[in-house]
Amino acid sequence: MQTSTSYRNLRGFGCRKSMELINEKLLGFVMVLTRISAFFLILPVFGWKSIPVRIKVAMTILVTVFFSMIIPVPIESKQVSVVESVLLLTNEATYGLALGLIVAFVFASVKFSGRIIERQMGLAMAQILDPLSGENTQALGALLEMIFILLFLSANGHHLFLLIISRSYETFPAGSIPTIPVLAGGIIKAGSTLLMAGLKLSAPILAAFLLLMVVLAVFARMIPEMNILFISLPMRVGMGLLMVAIFLPFINTFVAEFADWMGKLLPL
């Protein structure tokens, strides 16, 4: 009888230890899942509506399993209440959303430059349905964004996303309180970089349009009978397409600068 009682006590003790270990690992897994899910939710590549939800969920869980095995979570589940668990998950979601928003801002600079060029071409009202995001967008901006993303992925740019997640846990460990001023500062700098990078990419084409306007102004003074508005419309469209075709190969250099900007803007 004593042997049977000792065996049951030992078995119950082992079950309790196993449940505590499972609860601790489960809490850490959910925390990692929350940060990675929030990060992937805003990314322009993984957040596209054209990607099936099953693939998104599978990729998120796969990445979460990998990082949850190598990232320590210094939190004991026995001492964490339900309210504290919700606060911990909110902190992780804040980190993921902030980092994803910074990356999305830098990505948007390519589409922003396309919109600047389209306005100079007189195609500001021309819109198409973007097959990737499922939203109405300008044709030239969507084309530049697709080309840039293809070049980015061909250069193993998706490894940069994994590196960002890894470094985020080195700077902001799981369970830490978000440093809102640091994250907000990174988002503000990313927004300013969006404007500067968009202008930088479209600057040569803007210079060509400025030269075209000067030439048309000279023609208007020399030949007053010429209908400059009627002539300028096809010339602006042709000039824009020609300049985009000339400078399109140089977008590959922006891929290298993209990684440098990520290192400077992300608070990691």
Estimate the helix proportion, in percent. Answer: over 70%
Distance between the termini: 61 Å
Gyration radius, rounded = 26 Å
Class by alpha and beta content: mainly alpha
What is the overall silhouette? elongated
> Into how many domains do the coordinates divide?
1
Main beta sheet: strand number and arrangement?
A: 2 strands, antiparallel
| Low-pLDDT windows of residues | 6-19
Mean pLDDT across residues: 78
Count of helical regions: 8
Q: Spell the H/E element sequence.
A: HHHEEHHHHH
Main sheet strand line-up: 1-2
Structure, briefly:
The chain is mostly helical and 268 residues long. It has one domain. The protein contains 8 helices and 2 strands; from the N terminus they run H-H-H-E-E-H-H-H-H-H.
What keywords describe this structure?
268 residues, mainly alpha, two-stranded antiparallel ribbon, elongated
Please tell me about this protein's structure.
The chain is mostly helical. It has helices at residues 2-42, 53-70, 82-121, 139-154, 158-171, 180-222, 228-247, 251-265, and strands at residues 128-129, 136-137. The protein has one domain. A two-stranded antiparallel ribbon has the order 1-2. Helix 1 runs parallel beside helix 3 (82-121) and helix 3 runs parallel beside helix 6. The longest helix is centred in the C-terminal third of the chain and has 43 residues, at 180-222.
